[in-house]
Amino acid sequence: MSKHQDERGAAAVEFALVVPLLILLVLGIAEFGRAYHLQTTLSGAAREGVRVMALQDDAAAARATARAAAPGLDLTDTQIEVSPSSCAVSATSPVAQATVTVTYPMDFITGAFGADLTLTGKGTMRCNG
Question: Cα 64 vs. chain centroid, distance in angstroms?
Fold first, then answer.
């Protein structure tokens, strides 16, 4: 037998061994990119929400602004936490700070990387500018 005859099918076997790793790598990159996009969207929404809370002292408007800043996500009021509920200055806290925290459960599209992941965006700003 010639050397060429002994190596028939070797490329197919090597390809079959490498393809699952390449597919897993591509899916991992796609899932990581999606998670990064969601994280930056949540951070931006929290930043916009806390800005409204700090300037207008209105928790409902802060939640509405956070929802509007993340149009692709279906955020509910329970996923948007505003604290404190008022930016009133007191004797114990002469400089009040508002915080908006937005949480969102991200489920993996492929299901290859386990269960869902909870992403959080947080914004903090001094009240009244």
Answer: 18
**How far apart are the C-alpha atoms of 36 and 25, rounded to whole Å?**
16
Please report where in the chains the tokens 């928790």 appear, as a residue. 59
Cβ atoms of 126 and 54 within 8 Å: the answer is yes
pLDDT tens digits along 52-76: 999 988 999 999 999 999 998 999 9
Q: Domain extents for the chain?
A: 3-126
pTM above 0.85, yes or no: no
* 44 C-beta neighbours (distance < 10 Å), count: 16
**Which of the 8 DSSP states describes residue 57?**
-
**Would you give the end-to-end CA distance of the chain in angstroms?**
84
Which residue bears the tokens 């010639």? 2
Query: Could you give the angle at which helices 10-56 and 59-69 cross, rounded to 10 degrees?
Result: 150
